Amino acid sequence: MIEVLTGSPLNTIQDLGRPRTMTLGVSRGGAMDSAALKLGNLLLGNDIDTAGIEVVFFPFKIRFHADQAFAVTGARGVARLDDEPLPPDWAAKARAGQILTLHAPANGARSYVTFAGGLDVPVVLGSRSTDMKGGFGGYQGRALEAGTRLAAFPSDAKDMPSSGYGLAHPCDLPENVAEVRCLPAAEFDAFTDDSQALFFEQLWTVTRTANRLGYRLESETPLSLRSPLELLSHGIVPGTVQVPSAGMPIVQMADANTCGGYPKIANVIEPDLRLLAQTQTGRQIRFIRVELDEAVAAIRAEAVRMHELGLALQSARTTLLAR
Amino acid sequence: MIRISSAGAGALLLDAARGAFNDSVQERIWAVARRMAALPEILQAVPGVNNLLIVFDTIQYDPAILEHSLRAVWEDTLVDASPAREIVLPVTYGGTFGEDIPVVARFAGLTEEEVIAAHVSGEYRVAAIGAMPGFAYLTGLDPRLAIPRRASPRVSVEQGAVSIGGGQAGVMPCTSPTGWHILGKTEEILFDAQRVEPCLFRLGDRVKFRRVG
C-alpha cells in the first residue's frame, strides 16, 4: 500500500493512454513524457504501458506501507528515500514506513514514480490513465489528494538489488532552448511568408497556462494568415500546433480536445513532445523543420532505442541479482 | 477535389469540404471512415465535419502507402447505407440555462420564443463526435440561428447545457469551457465511460429536441 502525503490538482495516475478513443471524443491522455514513464517501468521489469504517477506539483511525498520496489524518472530534481538521496533515473526498494520525497526540479517539469507491478486502479476504455475532463480513469477520475491510498499489483521484481540501480547516463532533458522538431501541417502555406519563416526563427516562450491540454507559446511577433480562414471542425492529434487569430501558437498535448477548428501550422513529431512537456514555464523552445522521412526515421529510432534499453536493463538486473 | 495533408508522421487529414457543410459529403466520410477503420494498419479513423482524420502506427507503416490507400478508398466509396436511429432529447429552455437566448434573439431579429421555436423544431443529424467525451456536432440548425461563437469563451459551462455555435447545435456532455451560446438544459447523460457504449449518440443519428420547460 502506498499513501499520498501531499495533494495537488495536477498529480495524476498515467500509463501510455488511450490510442483508439478519439471517435468517442476521448483524448489519448497518458504520460506527457512517455519516454520517462517507459524507462521507469523498464527499470522495474514492468511492461512499458504500466500505470505510474505523473508528478507536476512539488514537493511530492508518498509513504510506503509495505516493502515496494519503485523508480523515479523524468524531471531532474532532488529525490530522497527518507534522508537518502536517489540518483536520477533510478530504481530502489523501499521498506514499509519509508517516505519518498520529490523536490522541485532544477531542470524538467514532470517526474514519474513507477512501482514494480504497477498501480492497481481499474482499466477504463483500455487504459488506467486519469482523464480529468471526462472524470474517469486513474484514481476515481481525479488528481491525487493527500491521504489517497494506492495499491500496487504483486511483482517478482520486488527481488531487486537492495542498493538500487539505474542508468549510468540519465536521459536527456532540454537544456537552455529545447529544439523541437516538427512537420508542416495542412494550413502551413496559408500563413504569410514572413510568418512561415518566423515560426522557425523566433524563440517561443512557454507561458504559465501550459498544461496537459496544451502549451500556449509566446514570442515577439504574432503569426498571421494571408487571409482569414474558416475551417470546419476536424480531428487533431497531440503535437498539432494551432494558431488562433491572436497569432500565438498552442501546441495540443495529451489531454487536448480531439477536434478543433483553428488553422494548423505544424505538428510536433511524437518523440519530441516530451521535450515540450519537460520545458518549464518561462523557458524557451525553437521549432526545427524536418521532412516526413526524417520524422518517420526519428520515430522508428526511438522505438528501437526503447526496445534495446529494455533488453539491457533486463540483463543488468539479472547480473546484479546473481551477485 | 479532396486534399490530404499529413497531421504529423502518424496521421493523415482528408479534407473534403467545399465551403459550407455538405450532407452527402458527410455520408461519404462516414462510409470511408468505416472502411479505413477495418484495415489492420489503422489505429483510428475519426470523422470530422466534412473531413476525416486517420491515425496509424508509423513504426510499422509508411505514411505514403497509407495516403495511397486513403485516396483509393475515397474514390471507391459512395455513401453510407447504414440506417439512422432517432433520438429525442427533452430540453428545458431559458432560465439559468438559457442565458444566451436574448443575445441570439437580438442577433437573429427574432423574439425569444421564436428562437426557442426555431431550435426545438429543427431536425438534426450527428455529423461527428469529438472535442469532448461524447460531444456531437449536430448539423441542421436553422440558418437564422447561425450566430458566431462568443468573443471570449465561458470558463465553465455545466454538463447538459444545450448550445449552438458556428452554425451547429450541440449538448455539453461534461462541464467544460465553451464559446457556444447556451439556450437550455437536458438531463440526458451523453457520455458514461462505464457504459458498454459510452456515447449516447452514434454517427448519423437523427436528433430532435422536445420542450419540457
TrEMBL record, chain A:
Domain Carboxyltransferase: 23-305
Listed GO MF terms: ATP binding; hydrolase activity
SUPFAM superfamilies: Cyclophilin-like
Protein name: Carboxyltransferase domain-containing protein
Organism expressing this protein natively: Acetobacter nitrogenifigens DSM 23921 = NBRC 105050
Transmembrane segments: none
InterPro entries assigned: CT_A_B, Cyclophilin-like_dom_sf, PxpC
Keywords attached to this entry: ATP-binding, Hydrolase, Nucleotide-binding
Pfam families: CT_A_B
UniProt keyword annotation of Nucleus present: no
From TrEMBL, chain B:
Domain Carboxyltransferase: 2-201
Residues annotated as signal peptide: none
Keywords: ATP-binding, Hydrolase, Nucleotide-binding
SUPFAM superfamilies (UniProt xref): Cyclophilin-like, PH0987 N-terminal domain-like
One example GO MF annotation: ATP binding
Pfam family, one: CT_C_D
Superkingdom to which the source organism belongs: Bacteria
Plastid is among the record's keywords: no
InterPro entries, alphabetized: CT_C_D (IPR003833), Cyclophilin-like_dom_sf (IPR029000), PxpB (IPR010016)
Keyword Nucleotide-binding: yes
This protein's name: Allophanate hydrolase
Organism name: Acetobacter nitrogenifigens DSM 23921 = NBRC 105050
